[in-house]
Amino acid sequence: MPLFVFLPTDAVMWLITAVLIASFIYVRRSPRTREKWSRVFSRPIPQASCVILLVFFVLGLADSIQAAARVCPGRIPGVFRLHRVATRQHRGELDRRARAELLLSLRDYRV
Prior knowledge:
Layout: E1 3-5, H1 8-29, H2 31-40, H3 44-64, E2 66-68, H4 79-91, H5 96-105
Antiparallel strand pairs: 1-2
């Protein structure tokens, strides 16, 4: 099961979406405002602009949904070893030869 990650910019995108939906509902309920917007969208250039902006906005929303794999040291080979070696390196216990062996053993590993 993926772990969904939301960045602050993604939260802003979803907040803008909520505001747009609320304003759409407001425009639909107000006859005067609905009449003004229907005059705007009766012309072809605003309609085309709206479609283009809507396509880019939907792509931006789809891009804001990010799923990160849950990293479990027992399932993915090399992750636990990488963590252990990085901890040893942080403590200064890893020499140059051990680092080279680690890089050779993990060169084909990609997240």
